[in-house]
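Handout, section 4.2: multi-component inputs.
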Amino acid sequence: MFVEVRWHGRGGQGVVTASELLAGAALAEGKYLQAFPEFGPERMGAPIRAFTRISDGPIEIHSHVYTPDIVVVLDPTLLENPAITEGLSDEGKLIANFSGTPDEVRKITKFMGRIYTVDATRIAMETIGRPIANTCCVGALVKVTSLVGLEQVENQIRQMLEFKIGKKGADANVEALRRAYDEVRS
Amino acid sequence: MSEKKKMRATIPEEEYMFPGTVDCQGCGAAYAMRLALKALGPKTMVVIPACCWSIIAGPFPTSALKMPIYHTAFETAAAVASGVKAGLSIREKEATVLAWAGDGGTFDIGVQSLSAAAERNEDFIYVCYDNEAYMNTGIQRSSATPWGAWTTTTPRKHPKDRPKKNMMEIMAAHRIPYAASATVGHPEDFVRKLKKAREIRGTRFFHVLATCPTGWRSPPELMLEVPRLAVETCVFPLYEIDNGVYSISKKPKEKLPVTEYLKVQGRFRHLTDQQIQYIQEHVDETWELLLKKEKLGRLF
Amino acid sequence: MSTVKVITGNHAASFGARDSRAEVIAAYPITPQTQIVELLSEFCADGTLKAKFIKVESEHSAMAACIGASAAGVRAYTATSAHGLALMHEMLHWAANGRHPVVMANVNRAMGPPWSIWTDQNDSLAQRDTGWLQFYCESNQEVYDTTMIAFKACEQVLLPGMLVLDAFILSHTYEPVEMPDQELIDEFLPPFDPPYKMDLDDARAFGALTTPEWYMELRYLIQEAHEKALVTVREVEKEFGETFGRYYGTLELYRCDDAEEVILIAGSTASTAKDAVDIMRKGGRKIGLARIKLFRPFPNEEIRDIASRVNKMIVIDRNVSFGNQGIFFNEIKASLYSAKNRPPVYGFVAGLGGRDMKIDDITGIVEQADTCDIEEILWWGVKL
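Output:
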């Protein structure tokens, strides 16, 4: 297995944290990984990307990701941007934070591969209380790809977030993760 | 000096500087160090950036001082002293760190690192021995050179046309615990202030007027006399800023005209009466301002 | 038990400094290095690291303060990048000539103008002649490990050491990094105890004016120390490997045993190039890779040794010495002049200012070397 994931979002939406979460969970499962943000200055609100590589064997490559296997879009306002599907073959998967159906996303993106949607912003508002869609999108990704186990991601959230935002905040994020995992649509 | 009073030895007899240093005749900078080490005592480490003292301290493998010396680059006295102090504190070693720089290394090229260290309130004593120009390189103007003075880069036809930077005020603006002016012509005052400063923690700054017969074109035998005239004319007032309180160390009974100070130095010999009048006015204004500050009590 | 964390290259440097028990840190922020000192200031604030952090106003003062601390006898650390490193230049000489084993992480970033925050090697290579040891790292693990390797080696030879990591490609990329038990690290890297330091009981003058009668001897001693450093680094790397199980070497060879041609490269591009070597090997080329880990002192003997076994050398420089050629290219050719076997050496300048170096770029360069003239300066992928 050698999988490349590209994350799209805006500065401040936790895009890098999402890629880091996935990477941490992969490590816990004994996989090899690499995660990195767009190389450059990050500005609040501006479109940014992040990348995760997961592999069964050591990862040597240190160049950009050009042909991702999976694209995750954290911000629905970015779906119209052609950069979303750049390098993504029809064999790939597109996971979008979107309140509508995958068919609606197909109309917007013209992407012909498999599309999944999850209403991550709503779930985040109902669980975390803020429109931070990153953990929800990880939940959807885990369901759709089985790259890592859901439990591992839960552990990662607790490890990473309990220190930063406290147990309550971490619990809310775990709940968001689980709900997104259950509610993702194909 | 007063013939009425009996001299009391207020200056420690111990010597921490060896004789035979390679300074010019009548060098105020050399004497200033000798006094400073007497005041601060043996538990002192000295940091010296590029300045006359890079030479005076003696060439490898000799040393003019009984204390450790770190010679460093021109603009780094305060930064290196910060590092030395940090290192000593990690090693739990007690010592007074003395940064010892000229006016070029303080007013000009070193002002950035000094300002930063003062803002951090680094625990060292910083002495600027001010001979009012780049004397080590052969008398070029610095921002410490007074208005009207000749240097090799401010020739007599175009002497310096900007006033001396007020370094004491710049340092006071950092709200450091202690700043004092001193001269080599007032050893007891200098020693008293250093002893006081030694007991204070944080950044302590000294602005010391140090006679340079070579650059000032003054007779070497007037090494003590010239800075005394600077004080008596109020060209260079002696004062302290102790935790925001200004106090003038010496108020002349009868303020002498600036000509008394200017005329003993060849660097001012080209000045016209009108120019001297301008200097007098500036000196008077600055002195009045200082008197006012003293009356205001704690200023920060 | 060792722990594994998924961290950026920058944080690998911070953890490396923490676990090396740096005692004084003086630093100034600059992209893309800032996270190194941010995390170190947290370590200092929460007591994880018993060190003094001097928050200076410039890189020049950062190095000056490190030098002061080192002179006072403690282990000093800083980190910088590009313009910060250039500003330090004077004090880089001071640190080396003063024989202060300060260790610094430099995040390789291109020099302006125009402004660039992306990687190339011109910032660190421009400091070639300052007397610093230079270690070019390929992964975050190596950044972490090399911090303690550098401290240990540098303190033995009394020279400062710079470990270099690529902007973003390592500095901002998360990779798993294994951190051994502190006890084991302490055993590997004992406290710093220099033979001469600022000491009231042993008063000395450091850096005093030295006449032509002695200056040259002091410089000769630095050259001698660099020659010794080559041996010392290898010994320290060996000991590190025996203790922690990870070996790097001064010139790392990859699939060179039966190689007929070899790529010479430094930094994180080396790992991408290893993938390219694997691909070309599958295609039937007997190609290997030699990664320059240590640039100063330069592993001349190892370069000559690999040269004696191949028919062709291809040097990829993420840097250039304007008016001449790639800097590694020149250094390697200089090494080979006295070698018996001198294969043709092809030099490519590539990936400046963070232009991505893909597997295709490496294979493309190797293919171009098949047909090009060795005297040419080859700029790869320039759109002009």
